[in-house]
């Protein structure tokens, strides 16, 4: 039985801890904050409750596998999981309203033809069919296997661009999601729809590789799922699973140094000077913080496992601005769980989030893309005469915008609420109170640099959208969580835990579950 020290209690770290404990190891988790779950958090007040992190689960099979392999109770026995239908409703600047059914390719085609116009469904379906080829080519190396030593091959974009007619068939430079959208979808509403998937995952569609088309394929194929009680209920269930497997948790326990002995990781030192010896260390926090923990040198130096360079806007994630609204009045039965209100000026929106080729301060746009979440969940409201509404928008991380400025945050919350009325007419008149969460709050709560939220790994762009591998050049030190392979999001973070556990239990030659 080996001793495993885990730094951080995020979803990827807890997934690794549960699997390692089942394998017979003694696992201790050290979390600097006062709770578990990382960015999967819950705000509760006056009988209302809101997810302040992710609001939906995609690829639930990752957590089904985790719960099956770590205990007797399945995922469905541990949480109440249901599909969201429609998966999403979209409101475009010209007034077009589109409702996309959950996990129904044929239904999506019909909905697009009815709302956007004849032929729209076929164009979208053709693109999604090509995205399936991306998924088939990258599913194992980008989700189910540790990052390969020759990761450079993943720098090639697997998106199969359709053959062009005429003499001039080649485009200049690699395809981006925006160039693919404009070339193959043509209609500005379909372009906005495709770009919105990238933005929701924290990518700038102008430089995200064409392989990002796998994001809508993933959602439309495997569905969008909600956990009764919010995504925090999933974090609660995973924490309880860890506890049932005898994983030890220490909260308010900041790790200040990774102990090295005989050329390998041998434990952790805490802020109070205590040292916890270990045979292996799992780092579940942003690898950017590893250098000071290792005396100033990252474990991927001199040809290590860290891909790169990471492009601005691609590698470090974006911020999430959240407005939690306690609302009087019942939720209509016809209300969609998720509505996306699209920005009228996407160029201005992207410049405010990612910049426009330069560094420094950025100015959030007047009318951003806003996602409105209205779960039909009695646990989120005090009674059926009220509802909890959550508004989110992608924003620049803290730094390019000073999100500690309460006045600026309040004004931006006002803008977002105004935009959301396209989805919920009269919303602002019904608000009892609101609470705002900015990237500065995310940074304070989770320790994430600048409050950024990581996106999943993508193939293409010369590896600029990959994450550091789970095994490092320092023997005994492993990386888990959204900032390591295979990237951010609930499913990907959960898979990072599976990959780390496999490497520790089965050794460096382990290549993933078959």
Architecture overview:
- This protein is α/β, with parallel strands linked by helices and 514 residues long.
- 32% of the residues lie in helices and 19% in strands.
- The protein contains 15 helices and 19 strands.
- A 7-stranded mixed beta sheet has the order 7-6-15-16-17-14-18, sandwiched between helices. It has a 5-stranded parallel beta sheet with strand order 9-2-1-13-19, with helices on one face.
- Strand 10 (255-261) and strand 11 form a beta hairpin.
- It starts with a strand and ends in an 8-residue tail after the last helix.
- The model is unreliable at 166-170 and 301-315 (pLDDT under 50).
Largest sheet: 7 strands, mixed
The end-to-end span amounts to 25 Å
Radius of gyration: 22 Å
- Which bin fits the share of residues in helices? 25-40%
Count of beta strands: 19
The oligomerization state is single chain
- Low-pLDDT sequence parts: 166-170, 301-315
Average of per-residue pLDDT values: 92
Name the shape in a single word.
globular
User: In DSSP terms, counting alpha (H) and pi (I) runs of 4 or more, how many helices?
Assistant: 15
Structural class, judged by helices and strands?
alpha/beta
